[in-house]
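To whoever is on call:

I kicked off a structure prediction for a single chain this morning and the downstream step that reads the tokens threw a length-mismatch warning. I double-checked the sequence; it's 400 residues and nothing unusual in it as far as I can see. Pasting both halves so you can look.
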Amino acid sequence: MAKGKDLKPHIGIFGRRNNGKSSLINLITGQEVAIVSEEAGTTTDPVKKSIEIFGIGPAVIVDTAGIDDSGELGEKRVKKTYDAIKTIDCAILVITKNEFGFYEKELIKQFRDYSIPYFIVHNKSDLQPLEQLTREKIGAFSKAEVFDFSVTRPTQTDTLIGLLRKTLPETSFQKPSLLGGIVEPNGVVLLVTPIDSEAPDGRMILPQVMAIRDVLDNDNICIVLKETHLKQYFEQHQPEPQLVITDSQAFGFVNSIVPAHVPLTSFSIIFARLKGDFEHYMEGTPTLSELKDGDKILILESCSHQVSCEDIGRNKLPRWIKEFSGKRIEFDVVAGLSDIPEISDYRMVIQCGGCVVTRKQLINRLRPAVNARIPVSNYGLTIAWINGIFDRVISPFKTI
């Protein structure tokens, strides 16, 4: 499953083998998305499908392997099923035959650990209806709603979708603004976008594109320029921007040109404020001044990409941190949403802006470090601290 590359809310379907998870997905999507078979274990790796749900909008359905799979290969499938929990915004737990036991409770424990809202569907009720004893058994362990359902009764689909809308957090499908509460309408927002070897040929990168759209959505004039034209812009007394947003890597240069009274921040930081663990970033970033020889830092990238000599996470950040601290620091880099090493080995974790992942995915990505009280930061905030302008670049957010 290509996790972490779709910003739409993710809805995971979980349960034992042959409980009808795939049939349920096909009914919700109205398509033959998942393979349906009487043979248990048909679904192997988690499979994603983009759909449109009335009242929610675009969403991603994630079909997972049976939680009770067995054997060496089955154990690997089960692990991937548990890993999928970290990437979803809402879960549907599918049971049948009034079976509610170890497997279901383990899934619910994981839902709780990762703050995943969920409800329970007792499927195949045409063969065996949900018994009151089962309801009571579930109620003693979980407060989730339980819906007696059968894919052979499509008239129940509207009720199922309604329950899904009720359970899915609005924050996962609402489109929050990057700049909401920061800028006033009818002003100028200046975007500084350096073009280096990491910039894709002929196009802007996703954070820049999203920022341009958000400036327009907030009824502002958007001006985009390279850092080489920044000085010229201010010398020609162009309309003074109410906010300047730059690539974090150009902080030192841009800070020297933009007048002190003009608010300044970066693409990485506005994304950190939108979907990252901003409060913990703020607390953790000063740790950069407390590093010691032999400390290890884990750098988390949200996307996988080709690495160049100017790669921010793998080359520039480690070099800048070493130069700033004057210490012998070790670095590990994990891309995408792959498994991370033992978190207790690290003095600090630094996360990228997270433009290609959902807020839930990013928060759950950082959860082990936060729970272990290991300081976390963000690319932009880290670079700001190193450049001595941390207070300046967070000031636009202090009035929110």
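Update from on-call: the warning came from a stale cache, not from the record. Cleared it. Sanity check on the structure: The two ends are 37 Å apart (CA to CA).
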